[in-house]
Design goal:
Rossmann fold; 2 domains
């Protein structure tokens, strides 16, 4: 039976910008022994190149093929469960790229789904527009539910804060794609050609 590893990054490989002792040795051993693995990244706005770059700065040399994001999971989920759907996106970067790569149609009016990811370009007007779309019948999905860091000087809310605002205004709870939803683990396993068991 073929085995592999799905590995979290923050708190497992590094803490903030500091490498966790032994993590580089562990990853090198996986590479040397050709054991399949993928790092899971919940932040949907960051690209796989961003993750590879951060790991490289910490002395861990992997490729984009070793990174699987909630944006990729979301695109796969929509392709499988909402074929031909239209989405209104509150998000940017890696999420937009993953949706575009999957040929998912992004619209600014009358979407089938409202999709919430991370972003720096949010405004109350954009959130209000999304709420109106949900109230008009659009399904509501969030790429993850990561909390805010709760540190002074942080310049972006965690997605949980924005999701809570939209939930309060629309009365609708989002379906959350990323960790800890087992959906992301199963999707990452399929990405590696492995079975979840």
């Amino acid at each position: 039976m073929k085995h592999g590893l799905i590995i979290d990054m923050d708190g497992v490989i590094y803490a903030g910008d500091e490498l966790i002792e032994g993590a580089d040795v562990f990853v090198k051993r996986l590479l040397d022994k050709k054991i399949p693995f993928t790092f899971l990244a919940n932040n949907s706005s960051k690209s796989r190149a961003n993750a590879v770059g951060k790991l490289s700065k910490l002395g861990i040399k992997v490729t984009e093929a070793h990174i699987y994001t909630s944006a990729m999971t979301t695109a796969t989920f929509l392709t499988e469960h909402y074929p031909g759907c239209s989405v209104h996106v509150l998000g940017e970067g890696g999420l937009l790229k993953s949706l575009s790569n999957a040929d998912i149609r992004m619209v600014t009016a009358k979407p089938d789904l409202v999709l919430l990811g991370e972003g720096y370009e949010f405004s109350l007007d954009k959130v209000h527009q999304a709420v109106d779309m949900i109230l008009a019948g659009a399904s509501y999905i969030a790429t993850n539910r990561d909390p805010s860091p709760r540190r002074e000087g942080w310049n972006n809310l965690g997605i949980a804060a924005t999701a809570a605002m939209i939930k309060e205004a629309s009365g609708r709870e989002p379906f959350v794609i990323g960790k800890p939803n087992p959906l992301m683990m199963r999707s990452a396993a399929a990405y590696m050609g492995l079975k979840p068991k």
